[in-house]
From TrEMBL:
GO terms for molecular function: ABC-type transporter activity. It comes from Saccharopolyspora terrae. The chain crosses the membrane at residues 20-39, 51-73, 94-121, 127-150, 157-177, 213-232. Its main location: membrane. This is Multidrug ABC transporter permease. It is found in: Membrane.
Amino acid sequence: MLAAQTRIETLLIVRHGEQALLTLIIPIALLIGMSTIHIGDLPEPRVNSVMPRILALAVMSTAFTGQAIALGFDRRYGVLKRLSATALPRWTLISGRVLATLLVVALQAVVLSVTALFLGWSPALTGLLPGIGLLVLGTLAFGAAGVLVGGALRPEIVLALANAIWFVLLLAGGLALPADDLPGPLAVIAGFLPSGALAEALDAVLVHSALPGAQPILVLLAWGVACGATALRTTRLT
């Protein structure tokens, strides 16, 4: 049952046009553009510094924005209510969606990595395994935030709010530009946003072959726990 539900959820994400735009087209376009156009003072090859931020963007797009919008409209059309009336246990429904999101993130990571390699990416090999763990942690944290937004509000509001938050986290979270290049207080705030924390941690392991540090991990855990605990109380099936 879990395998079947995971397969269905994965296909629904992959086949959705807006999801494809968020999960692959925009991240690939930004990866190529930011690596080839000289914006900001980055060491060569620029793709080494850009790739961790694009990976964080891909996770945010799939686990937060995509899931929030999908959940909001699933509630609108009674999908969750109908599924909850079947023989599928609730944990299977939840786990299937989580595993599907992780599979899509894995697909994103592979596609983006291949693209980055063609652009001259040379990651620290010792950071690949910790990088996978960070992607999983980031997916769970952003997924909890996506459930919080998509599980309590009307679909129209979810659509507008999820996209607005995506832009805010892109610009203020150190993804469009490195956190050090952001003006004034934004440079400090970026590290306490989940997008900035994930980008900082991935940069540490993939570029500098170092430990991600305690702050980014704690920030991701705090966002995940806070959003998840709130979502448990506010999420509605319809």
